[in-house]
Amino acid sequence: MKMLLAVAAGGALGAMARYGVYVLGGRLWGHGFPWSTLVVNVIGSFVLAVLIELMALKWNPSQEVRAMLVVGVLGAFTTFSTFSLDVVTLAHRNAWTPAMLYMVASVVLSVGAFLLGLRLARLALAG
Q1: Helix (H, G, I), strand (E, B) or coil at 127
Q2: How far is residue 36's CA from residue 23's CA, in Å, rounded to a whole number?
């Protein structure tokens, strides 16, 4: 139960931070290009890399704190950071083909699933 509450608390913080970036980004750059999403993805990837290295080399927080930060805060802030970690982990293992396949499949399948969801929702709502 402690783990679940830690992830939930971190998730709330991450979601609020993401919303804050979207509001600020919209004011600064407008909504013509997804700058806020780009900023969230880059910041999330950077912060996850720093946390992973810090926890591997210097800091040994409890499992609840790890889950709160990585799964909760960063998971709600951006899942792109986890995608980046997965790609780099595969690359560090010299698994270049799986890394490339994962990158391409993630983008193509996710965008394809989004388009399929739009189409199915429109069909369901139209008739």
Answers
A1: coil
A2: 8
Rounded Cα distance between 28 and 110, Å, is 28
**CA dist 60 to 5, 54, 65, 71, Å?**
20, 9, 10, 16
Q: Where are the domains of the chain?
A: 2-77
Rounded Cα distance between 87 and 94, Å, is 11
- Quick check: 45 and 81 in contact, CB under 8 A? yes
* 48: nearest Cα among 78, 24, 92: 78
Which residue type does 70 have?
V
| pLDDT tens digit at each of 127 positions of the chain | 999 999 999 999 999 999 999 999 999 999 988 899 889 989 999 999 999 999 999 999 999 999 999 999 999 999 888 889 899 999 999 999 999 999 999 999 989 988 998 999 989 998 7
The pTM is what?
0.78
Q: Are 26 and 56 in contact (CB under 8 A)?
A: no
How many helices (DSSP H) and strands (DSSP E) are in the chain? Answer: 6, 0
